[in-house]
Amino acid sequence: GGGPTNAGTDSQAPAKNPVQIKLTPDMVRIVDPPTGDRSDSDEAKNVVDGDPDTSWTTHSFKSSKFGNLKAGMGVLINLGRPRNLADVRVETSSSGVGMDIRTGTTDPGDNSQGDQKIVDTYKKLGEPDADAKADGTNRIFSVFDPNTQYQYVLVWLTELPPNDDGSGYKVSVNEVEIYGY
């Protein structure tokens, strides 16, 4: 026999130290509302593969606000069940990205109509007047209410930085990590 006598009676709840929640490709998708052509879908897996060299890259737009064609684009994360969350960490290819975290109660559908519904219904977390554009390529969003559980988390890009080569506006999202309890 032997072994720990308190097996199964883990007394660490509620945990104070957040742990990284393992995200798998089936838990993430790209949200590309109209007029998007939703051609980026196969890149969603790149933001959760733990490899900063792979990414989801937006198309190039004529202006920083997605060419004024749509409100933005993002990565929708379905955690599979409601969880208490600590923060979201996002690594992008360049600084100056307008970005915020939103949440909703459901994924209304992996299609243009569903994506528009996400734009219309998901609620922005954190300070309403918080500066969405920040310097640096590694951003940490600690915007979650400790007394609320979240299942659907949207990393929402609202403004794009100029492309490195000077043509248009675009960015790559290299990694998205969620830490929770």
Features:
33% strand; 1 helix; five-stranded antiparallel β-sheet; 6% helix; mainly beta
Short structural description:
By secondary structure, this protein is mainly beta.
Q: What layout of secondary structure does this protein have?
A:
Elements: E1 19-21, E2 28-31, E3 56-57, E4 73-83, E5 85-92, E6 98-104, H1 112-121, E7 123-124, E8 138-141, E9 150-159, E10 172-180
Structure overview:
Helix content is 6%, strand content 33%. The protein is mainly beta. The strands form two sheets. Strands 1, 3, 5, 8 and 10 form a five-stranded antiparallel β-sheet that branches. Strands 2-4-9-6-7 form a five-stranded antiparallel β-sheet.
| Average pLDDT figure | 91
Largest sheet: 5 strands, antiparallel
Helices and strands: which structural class? Answer: mainly beta
Which overall shape is indicated by the principal axes computed on the Cα atoms?
globular
